[in-house]
Every structure is written in C-alpha cells, then in structure tokens.
Amino acid sequence: MSQRPVVMGKKTASKNVDPITLYNFTFPAEQLAVRTALADIRTALEQALLDADLVGRVESALAELFNNIVKHAYANQGSGTLKCTVTKTAPGVVVNVIDRGKAMPGHTLPDGDLPNLEVGFSDLPEGGFGWFIIKSQTDGLSYERVGADNYTQLVFEVRRNA
Amino acid sequence: MELNSAKTGEAHVLTPMADRIDAASAIQFKDAIRAATVDGPARIVLDLGHVKFVDSSGLGAIVASMKHLGAGRKMDLAALNPDVDKVFRLTRMDTVFTIYEDLDAATGQVST
C-alpha cells in the first residue's frame, strides 16, 4: 500500500496536499451493517467539512455499490465482508472497496443505462437504477478482479455548479 | 415501518416516520403502504418530510406501492429533501410522479 499513515491531530486539512484517510473499516456484507457504514462515512465526510452535494453523492453511490455486493456478489449469503477506505484528496474523495464475492459478469462494470420509463403503468421499472446512480454520481469509476477479490474504486470531485 | 395517516380534504396523507427508505427497509415500507391503502380515498399523498435518504431499493418500493394502488388511484409525493429530490430527478422518476414542495401545496391548502 502506498497510502500514508494518518497523522493524528493534524487538522489543517484544507491546505494539506497529502491524502487523508477519513474512513477505513471492514464490515459484514449485510443490509444493517451497510446502513451503519453509510452513516459512519457520512459523519466522517461532514467532519472533514466536505460540501453537502459531494457528501450526498458519496452516500448515494456507496449505498448502491454496497447493496449490490450484498445482493449479487455475495448473493445474500450473509457471510462475506466488505472493506471500504475513504480518502480525502485535493479535488475530492477517493473510495476503494474490496469484497470477496463473485466477480462482476465478464469482469467488467455494467453499462448502467437508465431503465426505460416510456412504458405502460404496470411496466414501470421497480429496479435497475443502481449502476445508473453510481455512474452519474461519480467522476471516475473502475473495477478489477484480482484472484478472489473484487476491487472497485470510485472518484468524487467537487462539482462547482451542482 | 411506522406510518402516520391523515385524511386532508380528498387526499389520504401517509407520512413514513423513518429517516431512510432503503434496501433494509423497502419491504417494510411496501407492506405498511399496502396495509394503509386497502381502502380509502383514490388519491394518496406520500409525505416524505421525515425521510433523509432513498436508495434505488427505496425508489423501487415507492414505484411498486404506486403500481399496487392500480391505475384508478393516484400517488403524489410531497416534501422531498434535497438528496431525495435529486434521486427522483436523476432517475427521471420526477416525470412519473407529481411532486409537491410541501404538504400544503399537495393538499391544496393555501398558506398565507
């Protein structure tokens, strides 16, 4: 890991060009643990004085990614774990997520197209929004399968006209 | 999920007393809405004033609840916070639901 250790008590974040780790935890891949993790990440981002739009986008994208891992990579088995590291960088936030569930189909990210809403009342979509939300809320997104691990990286930058 | 229920004018106002409609609570949300709308007015106003966060599972649950009412009844939304509103606009679900800024606007009460 090339990441630098966090220097405790160093609060001059706005002038600091070194990445700062805001959150670094491994938690069970299940819905209530996901909720707790999202709340902890929101608190960490707010304490780092990141702007409200960026905090909202991180929460939204990570909720979709985490739930996707719980539901699909681990197929709701309830025995896996998720490791998440949130780092503050000069332009925003970088999030690295590692899980040991099934690989993404074709070892690649889904297209994440918006489901068609031009349909009849009874055919209105009740799902399929997850990857669309992840893609639209991030400014960079990558996925890699290495051995038995899935590595997903999400990059968020402050959007001036959000 | 706890739902507050009130009849205002011709609308049945349902207020989820939860701060999240998400993957962990989507089923409880759907069950509560179904139970509360077995009968009653044709128009439902879903008051999201207490809800701070909706993910795609929560969004799906709201759509499913609206569809379950059937085409003869209607579900409008009111009092979305900025993050919740963003999810509806992003997914174009703001073209499927009528969204009111607050409960007064949704129920036709004129605030002076």
Question: How would you describe this protein?
Answer:
- The complex is a heterodimer of chains A (162) and B (112).
- Chain A is globular, with a radius of gyration of 17 Å.
- Chain A has three helices and five strands, in the order βααββαββ.
- Chain A is α+β, with helices and mostly antiparallel strands and 162 residues long.
- In chain A, strand 2 (81-88) and strand 3 form a beta hairpin.
- Chain A has helices spanning 31-47, 52-73, 130-137, and strands at residues 20-28, 81-88, 92-99, 140-146, 149-157.
- Chain A has a single domain (20-157), classed as Heat Shock Protein 90.
- Chain A has a five-stranded antiparallel beta sheet with strand order 1-2-3-5-4, with helices on one face.
- The termini of chain A are far apart.
- Chain A is 29% helix and 25% strand.
- Chain B is of the alpha/beta class.
- Chain B has one domain (3-107): Transcription Regulator spoIIAA (2-Layer Sandwich), CATH 3.30.750.
- Chain B is built from four helices and seven strands.
- Chain B has helices at residues 26-36, 56-69, 82-90, 103-107; strands at 3-8, 11-16, 20-21, 43-47, 53-54, 74-78, 99-100.
- Chain B has a five-stranded mixed beta sheet with strand order 1-2-4-6-7. In chain B, strands 3-5 form a two-stranded parallel sheet.
- Chain B is globular, with a radius of gyration of 13 Å.
- The model of chain B has no long low-confidence stretch (mean pLDDT 94).
